């Protein structure tokens, strides 16, 4: 089955700096790659996603890049703010409506 | 838009007791539904998914079972809880696009 690896497990940056979280996947048939943000004690919330026919997608301060050849995708957060502090999860699935395989998460801390 | 309800929000149960967690969906019909478990400080593990009434797929062997008695109802059960069943249980369904999963508020289960 699909195996999603996520790095780093923890990340600390100063406010205003950029943060990058990287994920790799094993199944070349995977074609949907979402990123979720989870604040303490709350449900994961989808923040951005990308499909395999696109190499990059941006939404304000958040961007995701995908390299299908290398089977890795990354989340980029620019101009970080303290409210960006949370656990971020990457995931992959290989067909529409199929279950997601999640990475183990990255705990991001943005210090003022 | 879709809304996923879960109850109870928190639950404390003794080892060996039964379990029933309920998930219901509003705003859509024939949704794909998923049960995930998140252990403290860990990632999300897919437990079960369902593409329709009475159709359940299990991802990992475990002490739990799932049922889908109605289109918009997904139930997670156990006959005898183990300590290792403690965790944050999240129900998810597809929302909006063909791939986007939307999570319910979760049930925090503590087995003592």
Largest sheet of chain A: 6 strands, mixed
If you compute it from the alpha carbons, what radius of gyration of chain B comes out, rounded to the nearest whole angstrom?
13 Å
Compute the CA-based radius of gyration of chain A. 13 Å
Q: Catalogue the unreliable spans of chain B.
A: none
Overall spatial form of chain B: globular
Q: Helical amount among residues of chain A, as a percent range?
A: under 10%
Number of strands of chain B: 11
Please estimate the helix content of chain B: under 10%
Shape descriptor of chain A: globular
Question: What features would you describe in this structure?
Answer:
The complex is a heterodimer of chains A (112) and B (112). Chain A has 112 residues and is an all-beta fold. Chain A is built from no helices and 11 strands. In chain A, the strands form 2 sheets. In chain A, strands 2, 4, 5, 9, 10 and 11 form a 6-stranded mixed β-sheet that branches. Chain A has a 5-stranded antiparallel β-sheet with strand order 1-3-8-7-6, with no helix packed on it. In chain A, strand 4 (32-38) and strand 5 form a beta hairpin. The model of chain A has no long low-confidence stretch (mean pLDDT 93). With 112 residues, chain B is mostly beta strands. Chain B is built from no helices and 11 strands. In chain B, strands 2, 4, 5, 6, 9, 10 and 11 form a 7-stranded mixed β-sheet that branches. In chain B, a hairpin with a 2-residue loop joins strand 5 and strand 6. The radius of gyration of chain B is 13 Å and the shape is globular. The A-B interface holds A 6, 32, 34, 41-46, 49, 51, 89, 93, 96-97, 99-105 and B 32, 34, 36, 42-46, 49, 51, 59, 90, 94, 98-106, 108.
